[in-house]
Amino acid sequence: MLGYARAKFGPDELVEWKQADASSLPFADDSFDAVVCQFGLMFFPDKAAALREVHRVLRPGGVFVFNVWDSIDKNELAQITHQTVSSFFENDPPNFYEVPFTLHNQEILADLLAKAGFNESKFSVLSKTGISPTAADAAKGLIQGNPVIVEINQRAAADAQAIEAAVAEAVSARCGDEPVCAKLQAIICVTIRN
Asked: Parallel, antiparallel, or unpaired: how do β-strands 32-38 and 121-132 relate?
């Protein structure tokens, strides 16, 4: 991801890319006017520590903008994929698709932010339609382009191609094909460091 980002900028542009642990940022206190996190917070092992770190590195008046996925039932492709993948495993189904959709409760988010030192947080919901050229393309991304493939491949009886085909069929049945049109919903938060 960092390599992809670097390629977007020329060598004379003043952008520095660093890989860092969100719960222990390698920056001085009061270093930034803004921090942005796109669909990352739900993956941080220690969300409270990461939010404290964001608060620490922001200057007073600095803004923190982030988003998280809303619940899985408001995100059709993820819901379809999770249900379809799970149907292939009687015991111990892959649970990756549960992770990105676990931080949708705004009260919990507001509480985490308040405990990190952010006092005023404004939430909004963004609903969109996700479009894919075909159900097969969508299924490939939902299985092969995603950590769920690791969980599938770790299970000896799993047939990733059959699972991907079943996901394509389920996506097509619910969201159409050529193109696929599916509901996506996220929660956006803007909060200021006092």
From this structure: unpaired
Note the pLDDT tens digit of each residue in 36-92. Answer: 999 999 999 999 999 999 999 999 999 999 999 999 999 999 999 999 999 999 888
In the chain, what percentage of residues exceed pLDDT 90? Answer: 87
In terms of Cβ atoms closer than 10 Å to its own Cβ (0-12, 13-18, 19+), residue 192 is middle
pTM for the whole thing?
0.91
Residues of the domain holding 171? 31-192
Closest CA to 79 of 63, 100, 64, 103: 100
Residue 167: give its domain's CATH number: 3.40.50.150
Total domains in the chain come to 1
Decide if 121 contacts 190 (C-beta within 8 A).
Answer: yes
